[in-house]
Amino acid sequence: MMFLLIIFTLAFLFSSCNALDFCVGDLSAPQGPAGYSCKKTEKVTVKDFVFSGLRAAGNTSNLSKVTIMPAFSTQFPGVNGLGISVARVDFSVNGRGLMHTHPEAAEVLLVIQGTLCAGFVSSTNKIYLTSLHEGDVMVFPQGLMHFLINVGKSSALAFTSYTSTSPSIYFMDYAWFANDMSTDILQKTTFLDHDQIKKLKGVFGGTN
């Protein structure tokens, strides 16, 4: 009896795995904490597993002179449920990937072109800083603050991968200065003076 139970259990597990080879995201449905619900198998095509949106360079005419072009589950439904995603990052000369973190994902970055100054800060406030050149790879552990700066004389290009299908990106500067938090509170919590805060609010679009 026990042998039959084991056989039945194994058969069920293998059949379940085969039924869940993938879960292509149904983008017509709302996204939940676990991602999108699965598109019906009969509606899945090979196009769901291919994304061509990272071929061309992004527009870097912005404040940081950097653009991130994601291939997350929202753009690339084939990665839904797989715990992975990628993005293209373009840097103009002097482009800066401002200090940021991904609370739910680790990141691996591959430099395709140019030279980047890259680093992250550990939970003990130790800084891990280096220069990255074409072909170099660097990992940024989950949740740790990190940054990238184009220190070369030409544009730079990198591709990143994440351990999440929809990694959130939390920029420190925007969190502090792109909102309506009062200058008085920011003075007390950052030790910056009034004029510095007003200047930074002006740069990042904050008020109050």
Automatic annotation (TrEMBL):
<protein>
    <recommendedName>
        <fullName>Germin-like protein</fullName>
    </recommendedName>
</protein>
<keyword id="KW-0325">Glycoprotein</keyword>
<feature type="signal peptide">
    <location>
        <begin position="1"/>
        <end position="19"/>
    </location>
</feature>
<dbReference type="InterPro" id="IPR014710">
    <property type="entry name" value="RmlC-like_jellyroll"/>
</dbReference>
<dbReference type="Pfam" id="PF00190">
    <property type="entry name" value="Cupin_1"/>
</dbReference>
<dbReference type="InterPro" id="IPR006045">
    <property type="entry name" value="Cupin_1"/>
</dbReference>
<keyword id="KW-0464">Manganese</keyword>
<comment type="similarity">
    <text>Belongs to the germin family.</text>
</comment>
<keyword id="KW-0479">Metal-binding</keyword>
<keyword id="KW-0964">Secreted</keyword>
<keyword id="KW-1015">Disulfide bond</keyword>
<dbReference type="InterPro" id="IPR019780">
    <property type="entry name" value="Germin_Mn-BS"/>
</dbReference>
<keyword id="KW-0732">Signal</keyword>
<dbReference type="InterPro" id="IPR001929">
    <property type="entry name" value="Germin"/>
</dbReference>
<keyword id="KW-0052">Apoplast</keyword>
<dbReference type="InterPro" id="IPR011051">
    <property type="entry name" value="RmlC_Cupin_sf"/>
</dbReference>
<feature type="domain" description="Cupin type-1">
    <location>
        <begin position="52"/>
        <end position="198"/>
    </location>
</feature>
